[in-house]
Amino acid sequence: MAKIYVIGLGPGSIEDLTLGAINRIHNENKNFLRTENHPTIKYFKDNDILYKSFDYLYETKEEFQDVYETIVDSLVEEALKGENINYFVPGNPLVAERTVEILLEREEDIEIITGMSFIDPLIMSVKRDPINGLKIVDGTVFDFSMIDINTDMIITQVYNKRIISEIKLILSEIYGDEYNIFIVDSAGIKGQEKVNNTPIYSLDRFEDIGYLTSIYIPRIEKEKKNIFDFNDITNIMKRLRGEDGCQWDIKQTHSSLRKCIIEEAYEVVDAIDKGDIDSLMEELGDVLLQVIFHAEIAFDEGEFNIIDITTSLANKLIYRHPHIFLNEKVVNSEEVVYNWDRLKDLQRGFKTIGEKLDNISSLPSLMKGLKIQQVAAKVGFDWTDIKGALEKIEEEYNEVLEVIDSLEENWERQEEEIGDLFFSIVNLARFLKIDPEVAMNKSNNKFINRFKFMEKECLEQNVKLEDLTLEEMESLWSLAKKNKF
Q1: What fold, for 4-116?
Q2: Domain-by-domain residue ranges, the chain?
């Protein structure tokens, strides 16, 4: 196979063509262009240089990756004929050029003739120093996960209004409509360069959009900070636990925060049950705080760090979703759950059902009971129908009555029988596909709301609730029920 010379054409100005690029343009090799939508192609035409462009593939292929793979296949096929070829790309071949990446991945015989990238003239155009960080992303695949509010960003490949409109919607969600950014076309090309410093809401109103258009997003400066990301929170926690930090935060340990994470988790559940989205957002933040708090404590103690946590989580999600990441086929969601549980057991090294039962976490009792019964049911230790579950409740209820009627002051026996009754009721809930913890929480809230109604009625009647007879209280309770509390 002959050699493929990959030549960068620079950011757009003919003056920026390197001597190496000009020499390659004028040699006897066949010339191939990824695209002729670039100002330097005028140099080819002015000097009667023959070339073949791959622009037609952008019209015939549905996915960009297919375009790039086909270009590389065509170049390799041409090189296999035994003669060296030239392949010209905009900018620097090693910056935002997927076809060159593929050539390098395939380890083809290539030689790169560098060129100036579009980055240098773009930075000059917007007059920004990238010393604090610069992130470059592809606008055709841009999404929320690519945003870094603490770093300057360049979004390239924004050559039509559809792409820019989609980017605008994403940026507005994070930065807000009024945040000022730059939209730049033909950076560094004399007489053609256009630089617009504009709020995000007007991003898609510009007409001068093409293959040399880029968006430049300045990082949010500390003194103007009004939105924060994950890294900001970890940095805040570092300061709180630092040398001149908060004494309370510095003293905390994994054990001292144990009850906090339980409380925060319950408050998330409460917000969900109430359908209070604003509270849900806030409470999820409190749960996240607990994760970051424990990560910082662990880092200080040399145990683990936040990247260990995210890595462990990512590995777990990938391992337990082979139908997504390894293309294994599943029939339905039930099979997904089955595979998740099976892989979870393999990962934890469980060999018996007893080991699995022992490993059930210290959950609230109703949740733990449900989990135990679910594990047992999977190996067939279960009633054949709901009738068995109902009869078991009746049996346990009678045993509670029996221990009460015995007049024995056997507190342990009473506790045991009450526990068995609870366990059998949880089993009935499982048959009905009801989460007993959720059901109990709803009943708790129902009681609270009815009791508050009773207090309100007493207040309006200028009487004290505790002064009422039981019959009067029951009457108010019935009234609360009628009012759907």
Answers
A1: Cobalt-precorrin-4 Transmethylase; domain 1 (3.40.1010)
A2: 4-116, 120-224, 230-304, 438-482
Given a cut of 60, whether residue 336 has pLDDT beyond it is no
Report the distance separating Cα 203 and Cα 169, nearest Å: 10
Structure tokens at 361: 């976490």
Helices marked H in 243-364: 247-251, 258-274, 277-300, 306-319, 322-325, 333-348, 353-358
Question: What are the DSSP calls for 143-198, one per residue?
Answer: -GGG--TTSEEEEE---SHHHHHHHHHHHHHHH-TT-EEEEEESTT-TTT-EEEEE
**Residue 142: φ, ψ to 5°:** -70, 135
**Which residues have C-beta within 8 Å of that of residue 125, sequence separation ≥ 6?**
182, 184, 187, 188, 193, 195
pLDDT (tens digit per residue) in 198-209: 999 999 998 889
Q: Which two tokens stand for residue 207?
A: 């007409």
Query: For residue 146, which amino acid is it?
Result: M
Distance separating alpha carbons of residues 426 and 417, to the nearest angstrom: 14
Token pair in block for residue 355: 């080991």
So what's the architecture of 120-224 in CATH?
Answer: 2-Layer Sandwich (3.30)
**pTM, whole model, 2 decimals?**
0.72
pLDDT of residue 77: 95
The predicted-structure confidence for 286-311, as pLDDT tens digits, reads as follows 999 999 999 999 999 999 999 999 99
Q: Which of 92, 85, 84 is nearest to 17 (CA)?
A: 92
Q: Which residue has the tokens 């007049």?
A: 407
Count of C-beta atoms within a 10 Å radius of residue 122: 24
Say whether domain 230-304 belongs to CATH 1.20.210.10: no
